[in-house]
Design goal:
This protein has helices at 7-23, 40-49, 100-110, 169-175; strands at 2-5, 31-36, 55-66, 75-78, 88-96, 116-124, 137-141, 147-148, 164-166, 179-183. It has 184 residues and is α/β, with parallel strands linked by helices. Strand 3 (55-66) and strand 4 form a beta hairpin. Helix 1 crosses helix 2 (40-49). The structure holds inosinic acid and magnesium ion.
Length: 184
Amino acid sequence: MEVLISAADIQRRVCEVGKEIARDHPDSTPLLVGVLNGCVLFVADLMKAIPIPHEIDFVSVSSYRLASQSNRSPALLKDLEKEIAGRDVVLVEDIVDSGHTLAFLRETLLARGPRRLRIATLLDKPDRREREVPLDYVGFAVPDRFVVGYGLDYAERYRHLPYVAALTEAEIESEGASRRVGTR
Ligand code: IMP
Ligand code: MG
C-alpha cells in the first residue's frame, strides 16, 4: 500500500481542527457525535485537541455494500444516548465519499432541533460526491482511491494503522470483494 498521509501530519492537522472547534464554540459545551466504527481514532485524538469542555456520544449506521463501495440507503443501527435539542452538535466522520451517510445523519439529527449542527471529517473524497453536504471541518482531501488506516478499514482490516494509506488494485482483489453486511 501507498502511504498518503503520515501519522505526524494527521496529528498536526487534528490539533488544528480541535482548536477550530473550540474557537467556534465560545459559549457552549459541544457534543461530539462520532460515527462508528471508522471515527474511533479521530474522535479520541480530537478530544485531546479540543481545549474546552465537551461531551461525546456515538451513532452507528448500517451499510449493505461491497467492501469497497459505499451504500446508497443508510439506516440508524445505534442511536444517540443523549438529547440534542438546543445543543451544539459536531458530527465526527472518518471519510465523506458519496455523501449519502452524512446527508442521512444530518437530516436525522436536524429533525431533533439542535441549536447548531456542524460536521467534521478527517478525510474528504470530493470526486465521488453524489449528495452535497456542508462540511465545517475537513482534515484532508484525498484522491478517488480506496484508503485505509487511522480508523478506516477494508473488510475490518487496517483500522489500527496510525497513518492513512491507499490500497492497490491487487490488494483490493486479493482481499476478495465479497458482499457483506457491516458497520461503517
Ligand atoms: P458515503 O456514504 O459514500 O459518504 O460513505 C461513507 C462511509 O463509507 C464512510 O463512513 C466509510 O466508512 C466508508 N468509506 C468510504 N470510502 C472509504 C474508503 O476509501 N476507505 C474506507 N472506508 C470508506
Ligand atoms: Mg468503514
